[in-house]
Each structure stands twice: as structure tokens, then as C-alpha cells.
Specification:
Layout: H1 2-15, H2 25-38, H3 45-57, H4 73-80, E1 88-93, E2 96-102, E3 113-117, E4 120-121, H5 122-130, H6 141-146, H7 152-155, H8 160-168, E5 175-181, E6 188-194, H9 198-209, E7 219-223, E8 229-233, H10 245-259, E9 263-267, H11 277-286, E10 297-301, H12 308-311, E11 314-315, H13 319-327, E12 334-336, E13 342-344, E14 364-369, H14 375-386, E15 391-394, E16 404-413, E17 420-430, E18 445-446, H15 451-456, H16 460-474
Parallel strand pairs: 8-9, 9-14, 14-15, 15-18
Antiparallel strand pairs: 1-2, 2-3, 3-4, 3-5, 5-6, 7-8, 10-13, 10-17, 11-16, 12-13, 16-17
Helix pairs in contact: 10-11, 11-14
Length: 475
């Protein structure tokens, strides 16, 4: 395990362009030393996994983590392939785990507030889970808290809670002792509910609530009762869509134009990023005049040439990227920067202006945002707000105005544990970092959900947006 930690330290210090964005060299060295001290005694596999996740979380980069989708199947079978899954979906609101769906046989209705699990308070559980969460910077606490939520979508794949709760708080037996406040009776209840396997919970949820939504179901368009258009985009993961997203958007905006709609709501609250092409495509329907790519962003890399012995542990999607790091980036493509990185000159190349579409929307636009919005979703919110293309309603986004790391990735496999972690290759910084704020994009209008909203199936953000439209129309 010490060999794995040494490799991880070397990969991060030699290749990660954002390692010292929120940590000094001394701070990161202390974290490595603290981790190494814990390796003087034998560690269980799950404990080493947890400590690794905490080290990577402390880098404060939303793209640096133990990627659940890239772990070996046999490792996850050992870590979370057992009967350790709680039979609920919930949201963390007002200090409670507020139930949104219940796959157990017990009568704990939607909106009921869990106060403890197996004797652990919600605050204690959240504190642990946040320590292994991913987000950009120090000012994105909402994003870290949001990662605690357990939903239909992440529950069927790899939910943060499912992975880390049984590592932080191992189950003595396959059951959960739940203390909660019933939404219906308002009385305190104590239950012992059987734990499930992942497959059992997914099957029970689908039997009770219908099939788990896929990527295609995350894209929808309809007209609300007042004639407002409602475009919902839960993901920018276009490579996993079976629909043509550009055709979908073209059809949606064509329908808006035909109907003479004056108001449009674009809901991206559940999107944590993906294809940047979605950003450009949407902007072509919102901009009135030709527009350029995002300006004021500088691109950096940590090194122009990597050690082949180090890269033999890394895999990539883009083989050209690995070849460039092995052979060396040409010297005319970068220059040394004062921040200790190399400024990648390709990142400063001006892009041609993009023409708006003929079916561009001429009415008032409302963009619904939230703490899940990182990467490309953050970029959309940022560009929309900067150009005053919409009123932002909801909560602060993820991502960070200080910039973030991403673009292309190295997927490192540790030789002894077999764990995989992601390292982004490029760091994006605002041209004037002195003016940058360590936070996401703040909405123009805040909408904060309460615990009772889940019980009433009440969408406070959407309701507030519709009220804004109604008030505008009444003037």
C-alpha cells in the first residue's frame, strides 16, 4: 500500500495542473505524510479505499477522485456487492434525510425525516460523507452536501451514500435501525428494516415506482398550463443518448416559435456536466447576435513531458494525448507561467464567431440551476448570466469562478490495491484571477427547498419561477 501511495503522490505532483490551486505544497506534503503514517499497520482494503478518497477529496478538484465507473468489478463486489443497501431514497434537507421513495415493507411515507441510522446522527453521517466528496474549491459546500442525496438515478448506478456509508459505519448485521419523524403522523418512529443488495433495491424501487429513468428520459420538452415552455435537461452526456440531441433541441425551439410562446424555462438542475457542445447549441437558440467562444480563460498544464515509467500505469480515451505526454509537447505550444505551471498556448487561440439559429427564442428565459451544475453545466450557467440571456433561479451552482481542471484525463491504476483514480490534464484559470470568486454561479433569484416540500411533491424552484412569470405578465 505504501508503494501505491508513493505512485499516487508522484502522479499527482508531476501531472495534476490544479494540485496547488487550493493547497500549498507544504499542506499537500503533510496530507501525504499523515496518510503514510496510517500505513505503518496493516489496513483493510475498504479502509485504504476510504483514506485514498479523503486524500483526493482534499485536493478540491471536482474531476479528481476514485471514479466508481472505472473500478474493477471484483473490487466493488468486495466493497459494496453485499447486503448493505438502505431501502430508501432521500434528500438531505434541513439536517434530515428526507425520504422521497421507500422500497421497504414499512409504512414510512414520502417526506418522513430520518434523524439517525444505526445510532449515528445525520450530522455525523454527513460529516463523514462530505470528507470523501468531490467539488471545486472551498466555496462550493452545497455541491458537497448535495452529493449525499440518494436518488433513483444514482441509486441504480453508484451512489455516494451506498459506497461510503458501510465503510464509515460497518453493519453488524444486514439491517438498518432507523429513527425518523413520520410525515403523516408527525410522530417519532423507530424501525429495523432489512438491508438489501443493490439488485434487490433497484428491483423493488422499479416495481413500486416504475423503471429507473435512463439518459434519454433526462431530455424532455413540454408546454405548461400557462403556455410557458419547459425544457428539462438532466444530463449533457450526449455519447450515451440514443436520441439526436441537436434534432431534439431544434424540434423543441421550433415548437416554441410556432406556439408564439413568450416564456421559456430551461431546467438543468440535475446536470453535472458532460459534452460542451450542448452549451454552444443552447447558446445558439438564446443569443440575439453572433457570439464567440468563452473569453478571459487561460489554459495550463503541469508538464510538457511525462516519465514513461509513470504513464505505464495510466490509460486514456485519447491516445494522441498520451503520445504527446510521452514524446513531449512542442515548445511553441506552451510557455512558463508565474504560477509554476506551463501556459498552454492552444488555449488562447481565438475561435470564430457562431451564428444564432433562425429559430432562436425571442422571449424571456429562466434557467433553473443548482449545486449539481459543474463542468459544462457550470459553463452554461456562467455564460448565460454574463450575457444576460436568462434569469437564473434556484441555488448556487457547482463548479468555481476561480476556474476548474478538466478537458482530458489520465486514468491511473494503482498496481497493488487495483484502485483507479482520475487526473485532469488541463487547468482553466480566469485571465484576471484577482477578481475571481471562490464560488459557483449565484442565481438571480434564490429558491431553497424545505423538508416538507418532499412530502408534498412540491417543486419550490419551479413554483417560484412560475410566480415570476405571472407577476411579469400582470404588470
Amino acid at each position: 500500500m505504501k508503494e501505491d501511495l508513493a505512485l499516487m503522490e508522484r502522479a499527482l505532483t508531476e501531472l495534476h495542473p490544479g494540485l496547488y490551486r487550493y493547497n500549498t505544497k507544504e499542506e499537500f506534503a503533510r496530507k501525504i505524510a499523515d496518510f503514510e503514517a496510517k500505513l505503518n499497520e496493516p489496513l483493510r482494503e475498504d479502509r485504504f479505499f476510504l483514506l485514498t478518497a479523503q486524500l483526493l477529496s482534499g485536493i478540491k478538484c471536482g474531476h479528481t477522485y476514485l471514479n466508481p465507473y472505472n473500478q474493477k468489478k471484483e473490487i466493488f463486489e468486495r466493497l459494496i456487492g453485499r447486503q448493505t443497501y438502505i431501502p430508501f431514497h432521500f434528500r438531505f434537507i434541513d439536517g434530515f434525510f428526507v425520504i422521497t421513495e421507500n422500497a421497504s415493507e414499512f409504512d414510512l411515507p414520502k417526506g418522513s425525516a430520518i434523524t439517525s441510522i444505526n445510532g449515528r446522527t445525520v450530522d455525523e453521517i454527513v460529516q463523514g460523507l462530505v470528507s470523501v466528496s468531490t467539488a471545486d474549491g472551498d466555496g462550493t459546500t452545497l455541491t458537497r452536501l448535495r452529493s449525499v442525496d440518494l436518488s433513483r438515478e444514482n441509486g441504480a448506478s453508484y451512489a455516494h451514500f451506498d459506497l461510503y456509508f458501510p465503510i464509515f459505519f460497518p453493519l453488524d448485521r444486514p439491517e438498518f435501525e432507523i429513527e425518523a419523524i413520520s410525515y403523516r403522523s408527525k410522530e417519532k418512529v423507530r424501525l429495523k428494516v432489512p438491508a438489501m443488495t443493490k439488485q434487490e433495491r433497484t428491483a423493488a424501487m422499479e416495481k413500486k415506482y416504475g423503471k429507473t429513468p435512463g439518459y434519454d428520459e433526462g431530455w424532455s420538452f413540454k408546454f405548461l398550463k400557462d403556455g410557458t415552455g419547459y425544457l428539462k435537461i438532466d444530463n449533457f452526456i450526449t455519447w450515451k443518448l440514443s436520441i439526436d440531441y441537436k434534432r431534439f433541441l431544434a424540434d423543441s425551439f421550433s415548437r416554441l416559435k410556432e406556439a408564439g410562446a413568450t416564456d421559456l424555462i430551461i431546467d438543468i438542475r440535475n446536470s453535472d456536466g458532460g459534452d460542451a457542445g450542448v452549451v454552444t447549441e443552447l447558446l445558439r437558440y438564446l443569443h440575439k447576435d453572433p457570439f464567440s467562444c468563452e473569453t478571459g480563460i487561460r489554459t495550463f498544464i503541469r508538464t510538457a513531458k511525462a516519465d514513461p515509467e509513470l504513464l505505464k500505469y495510466a490509460s486514456v480515451y485519447d491516445q494522441d494525448l498520451k503520445a504527446a505526454l510521452l514524446n513531449g509537447v512542442p515548445k511553441d505550444r506552451y510557455k512558463p507561467a508565474k504560477n509554476g505551471l506551463l501556459e498552454f498556448l492552444n488555449g488562447a487561440v481565438a475561435c470564430p464567431e457562431t451564428e444564432p439559429y433562425a429559430d432562436r427564442f425571442d422571449g424571456d428565459v429562466y434557467l433553473l440551476t443548482g449545486p449539481d451544475n459543474a463542468s459544462a453545466a457550470f459553463t452554461l450557467a456562467k455564460r448565460v448570466k454574463e450575457a444576460s440571456l436568462a434569469t437564473l433561479v434556484g441555488r448556487s451552482t457547482g463548479g468555481n469562478l476561480n476556474g476548474f481542471n478538466g478537458g482530458s484525463y489520465l486514468f491511473f491504476n494503482l498496481p497493488n490495491s487495483g484502485f483507479e483514480f482520475d487526473i485532469p490534464v488541463f487547468a482553466y484559470h480566469p485571465a484576471d484571477s484577482s477578481q475571481a470568486k471562490d464560488s459557483g454561479i449565484e442565481p438571480d433569484v434564490n429558491a431553497i427547498s424545505t423538508a416538507s416540500d418532499a412530502g408534498e411533491a412540491f417543486d419550490r424552484t419551479l413554483d417560484k419561477t412560475l410566480r415570476l412569470i405571472k407577476e411579469k405578465q400582470a404588470r
